[in-house]
Specification:
The chain is an all-alpha fold. Helices cover 76% and strands 0% of the residues.
Amino acid sequence: MPTRDLGRREQDRLRELLDFLAHDPANKHLILDATEAALDAHNLEKAANLLEQLSSADAADSRATNLAGLVALRQGRNGDAIMHFTRLLEQNADIGPRLNLAWAHLLTGNAENVLATLEDERLATDPVALRLRVQALHHLGRLDEALALGDQAAETQIGDRALFGALSNVALDANDTERGQAYATLAADQPDGMATLGMLALGGGDPATAATLFDKALAGQPNHARARIGKGLTLLQSDPLAAATELERGAEIFATHLGSWIAAGWARFIAGDTAGARLNFERARALDDTFSEVHGGLAVLAIVDGDLDQARERMRIALRLDGQSLGGRLAQMMLLEQAGKPEASAAILRKALAAPLGPNGQTLQQALAEFTRVRS
């Protein structure tokens, strides 16, 4: 049955229940049935309004508590969702509320609570629970543990495509491209899988294929951070200002992903916005002052400002932290080629996009793709 027909059926079901409820407005069971129908029809406002019609005693019913938690979860009120599902678990030890509570904890960034909530032997082989564990372990930086769960799921064939999409993200951050490719292929119709395949295509020098994959991922999940970042990287040469916008959107979602802020800094610089570039490099610096690319980027900006002493100092720090630092090597090249002439800086950096600055002869665009996917 087409998706459109399914949506019409859900709307019709909601209207039918609301008609019944109009003749019996105090019927708790009708209110709850209508709330479920409103959720199925993606009418969150109506679902919330229906729950408000319950008496305080009826609102404490386990079914009502679960629905209140689901409404809060879908409205982004994660704290309220945690409260409802925690209360529900005190009444009902079923795995459904446990999974919902774990999901709410994940959305608030409390990965430790996710793992604690999922400590139930009934969830050992549940695909949703496995995905939540993988995402929580990823959040905690316990990449090897997450990948071990993935290997186990692949061997026992208990995973689903969403799980393997999540695992493809973990593999990228672990710089395990072979696993990333394998997991992403199993999740090729999922935003996570598409984004991973896009990053691998971009790192492999195929930006056209990468751009198509990122667009498909974003069509399914507009706030997919890795796809936003990947899309930005594909625009670096053709539209650096648009690239910067996409990279910053992705970096804001990731929040603490250093490489994304660095890439956004370069995009701003290429677009001629040195103030914006500095702001992005400083955002990365606030997260980690020991990342070589922070100092490399600031070295390039110092060259543009004509402060060659500062540029040399930042360049030395960058190359000391990492002899292959992209920003450090670029600053070194710029100092040699144009000795602080501001009008030549952007042109040199544009040229550098196609130059073999990165390890193994990578261009700047390819190398940026690599460290935006592995540097957290």
